[in-house]
Amino acid sequence: MKLQTLRRTVAVAAAAGLLATFGVTSAGATENWQRVGTDSHSGVSGIALESRTDGGDLSALIVHDNKNAGEAHLSRVTMRDGATSVERLKWTGAEPVDLESIEAIPGMTGEYVALASRGIAYHIKVADSTASVIDYTPLPAIGEGDEFESFSIISQNGKLAALWADRGEGKKRPSTIYAASLSFTKWGQATFGAVVEKKYRAHYPTDEGTRNVSDMTVTSSGRILTSSASDAGDDGPFDSAVSLAGRVTVSSKGRVRISVSRSARVLATFPQHKVEAIECLPGTGDALLGTDDENLGGYVRTAPLCAA
Asked: C-alpha angle with apex 146: 140 to 150, nearest 5 degrees?
């Protein structure tokens, strides 16, 4: 065993023991995961609920972090009767590079914001098997070296707000969580209000290269859940967690406030997977999770994380 891998194994074991002491759930590598990709081009970098039935069946949109023309950018995952199917969707309009997150726009049926790692937000409309770009625009207040893997939208008091975060890099570079009011022009361009920001460090995993925020979701009450993830290479080993990181509020005048906990509560860990997508399912306490396990493909599952 290589020294670096040995050190990481020891560190993970120690961290896992500490988390167990505080009652944190550890989800096994095969527990409830459904495979939706088989290689590095089909992992899940972001996820957004599309529809759900009373019986628990659902469909969701997933984005892929592919960087070359003609490669898949968006797929539909359908989970029905315990089986999962995947359909690649056609992308029309300006072609993105390295999509990392996707979020449904409240009150705009079939419309989403998909975010690329360099901070370009694509407003798209999905109909049947085609995603059409309505408009695209850069995020405001992009910091030096920022690389984005998360984007979320909350609706409160009749107003929308967007949250996004630089992924960070372990202890040496905390993530920056940004938030601003959000609206759309009549031609579909996203416009942002004054930006507020907070620094955030994940408490798990503990690797030097940990992505402090690999994705983010916000509950209807404003609780901010983040995923964090680490990997030692395209073949793993991987590790990740979901934490309760803070809270956001939006006033009736559109003023956005965020608070971030210095001792964020780790809700669950997911060894052997790199969680890069999380979405709280409305009306339930469940989260829909997706992984980008590089050469090992991608997986999805639900987990009871959003009621905490």
From this structure: 75
